[in-house]
Amino acid sequence: DSSQPVLYDYLFKIVLIGDSGVGKSNILSRFTRNEFSLDSKSTIGVEFATKTLQIGRTKTNTSKRIAKARKLNRHVAADCVMQNATFSTPQSVEGKTVKAQIWDTAGQERYRAITSAYYRGAVGALLVYDITKKQTFDNMQRWLHELRDHADSNIVVMMAGNKSDLTHLRAVSEREGQEYAEKEELSFLETSALGSENIEKAFQTILTEIYHIMN
Ligand code: GDP
Ligand code: MG
């Protein structure tokens, strides 16, 4: 509704990437609508969904990547971020209101047919694998190449090992995930869209990192 005042300080576009079946659509529906579906097809077709949240001023993550990105470019992806000028509520002193616009692939990843348009303007990416499927973890390298080719070079990337609830089927240890993420200088969490574990935290982390790079 265009008559509604805009009630956020920043709008950040985040893209979800990773192999088909790892749980991207359910991570999105869990985060934005608190919904989970065992039937993957029912969630396909959403172009993007949004959620507005508060991010704190406290520096929760001082990763090498942030420091490096700051050094490289203080105005990282500034052209990709819409900064709102008309505040209709007093600004909170604790933090900023961020609207996350999260894009889902609608299944194109199956055909390796994700277009550049998908990545355009994205300031963050959540790179997802399935802890029960080793191949989806091995493909992280391919997805990082894809990001290098199509996304802004300063995009903030977070890696998520999803389906942490399926402990009995685990094929990738948390330590393997952590070590790979450290090597690539990415943030890392294990998540469960089914059990809601770390879903909110994953987005909080990525949005906070983006905010800190900009400020
Ligand atoms: P996408 O292809 O990456 O978008 O994956 P979907 O979100 O469609 O999920 C694929 C399948 O994995 C579906 O059957 C989901 O119900 C299931 N799934 C997604 N996330 C989880 C999770 O955290 N735990 C479990 N056990 N299953 C999940
Ligand atoms: Mg999907």
UniProtKB/TrEMBL annotation:
Protein name stated in the entry: PRONE domain-containing protein
Residue ranges the record marks as coiled coil: none
UniProt family annotation: Belongs to the small GTPase superfamily. Rab family.
Location relative to the cell: Endomembrane system
Species for this entry: Zingiber officinale (Ginger)
Highest taxon listed in the record's lineage: Eukaryota
